[in-house]
């Protein structure tokens, strides 16, 4: 079960948007249904203009992340071993940039997971954090990609509407309140959630393709499996950097 906190910015969660919540927080599903559906909740302010602005920010944020996904995936696919892991990074580049961190990850993997003076002692701890983050991401994926998607819109704490979208494209909406100004906003919430799921598919594809390319181009020990966390971290970093630039 997932929620977006309208007023909070977070780098955590799926796509840096969806946070975990207890299933009891959602009101539109019976316990027997929860196994087969993804529940997503967006709670809006009770002012329709503020609510509209909130959804617009979410839509822009998602589009920014989708663009970053495409850019990051393209970078991984076209990265050349002839770059000697420089990736075009200048001497005065940001040491926390996505490219620099990817360079460190690949160098560490090529060194068979041993720390090297080329990127500082103790990097194994940083890579362990990357692996842990990747594993947490992978564990959340099945929850977000269940056959049925249920989207719940609340106005403050009051349930406004919920829509269940099946894998075949059929939708059914149950309206609990009748504020006309919020009808279109709920429909936008549904579209946003569906687009989020599509973006997650794209992210998975970019990560897997990028890991395969990295493994082949740089002859990484263990192949694409060991490169998956590094590819995930790079894509995450690119999305976070793009989000910062569009604040």
Q: Mean of residue pLDDT?
A: 84
State the separation between the terminal residues, measured CA to CA: 27 Å
Count of runs of 4 or more consecutive helical residues? 5
Query: Could you tell me the radius of gyration in angstroms?
Result: 20 Å
Poorly predicted sequence stretches spanning 5 or more consecutive residues: 87-93
The count of strands amounts to: 6
Which of globular, elongated, flat, extended, rod-shaped describes the shape?
Answer: elongated
| Content of β-strand | 5-15%
Strand order of the largest sheet: 2-1-3-4-5-6
Helix/strand order: EEEHHHEEEHH
Please give the structural blueprint.
Elements lengths: L1 E3 L14 E2 L16 E8 L3 H31 L19 H13 L12 H22 L3 E8 L2 E8 L5 E5 L7 H35 L6 H22 L2
Parallel strand pairs: 1-3, 3-4
Antiparallel strand pairs: 1-2, 4-5, 5-6
Helix pairs in contact: 1-4, 1-5, 2-5, 3-5, 4-5
